[in-house]
Amino acid sequence: MDRRKPLITEISEGDFRKLDLKGRVTKHDGEGTHIVEVSLNDELDREIAAGLQSNDEEYENMMGNPVTIAIHVEPNGMDDGLYWDRYMNRSHPPRSFEIGVGIRHLYQTRDWFEDRSDCWRVRKCETKTVYRIYLDRKGEERCVR
Description:
The chain is an alpha+beta fold. It has helices at 13-19, 40-53, 56-64; strands spanning 7-12, 22-29, 32-39, 67-72, 97-100, 107-108, 112-115, 120-123, 127-134. It has a 4-stranded mixed sheet with strand order 1-9-4-5.
């Protein structure tokens, strides 16, 4: 494991998109399990679309707070570079990033980054970078409410 302290970067949506980051997701099909590369910009678009289609309270919570994306450390030896945390009880397969929407304050303990109002937390020792992405209000027209 990488023992350096993970970085927390506060960034605008436009600047985050310019980074054009990729992540890895475990996919299951008839031929077995595969790890495929995905665009984090596409994943962010999915989260924004879901928030825009949700109720008004959820929408305002999403637009009023940064979207948090934690990026797992690169694979090193036996480490597969994927988050496997049962605490969050998410319905997605293991992947190299975790997205949290509506996190007002990201708490830090000795071992964790966490949102205490929801079940979202990642181990610091497994995390390379955490992006706190402030969504552009001008981008609201991308989805019809």
